[in-house]
Amino acid sequence: MENDKVFSTLKQKSAFHLFYLLLTPMNLTLINSNGSSSSIPIGLGVGPFLAGMNLVKASLANKKFKNELIESKIYGIVIKKGETKYGLIGIKADTFDSLKLKIDQLL
Predict the structure, then answer these.
(1) Residue 53: what pLDDT?
(2) Distance (Å, rounded) from C-alpha 59 to C-alpha 71?
(3) Most buried by CB count within 10 Å: which residue of 20, 42, 81, 88?
(4) What pLDDT does 105 receive?
(5) Calpha distance 62→55 (Å, rounded)
(6) What's the rounded Cα separation, in Å, for the pair 85 and 78?
């Protein structure tokens, strides 16, 4: 697969991290020995913090992944006999069977 398609298929989807905002209404309830209770809205900090941090981390990871795909591009490169090349390629498959390469012999 081409790098753009590999990136769009494998990148982290940031929208899923917004589910941490569901923690926003969470409260911590403390009960004293005399029976009175107090409630602290910890979700107002926890939910947005987790969502924001995960959005930033996903964005940075996606940027690093895209740069690595660009730097390690090997798709479409001809490898001459006796030559070694390193890089990343994307393979679309429905199974985890081993990779089989077909080598064309040039006369």
Answers:
(1) 94
(2) 18
(3) 20
(4) 63
(5) 11
(6) 9
Dist CA 90 CA 80 (whole Å): 21
Q: Are 10 and 61 in contact (CB under 8 A)?
A: no
pTM, two decimal places: 0.68
Q: Which of 14, 7, 2 is nearest to 64 (CA)?
A: 7
> How far, CA to CA in Å, does 103 sit from each of 9, 73, 80?
28, 20, 11
Per-residue buried b or exposed e for 23-46, using 16+ beta carbons within 10 Å of the residue's own CB: beeeeeeeeeeeeeeeeeeebeee
- Tell me if 29 sits within 8 A of 39, measured CB to CB: yes
The two tokens of residue 23 are 């923690």
Q: 12-26: per-residue pLDDT in tens?
A: 998 888 899 998 998
The answer to whether the beta carbons of residues 98 and 106 sit under 8 Å apart is no
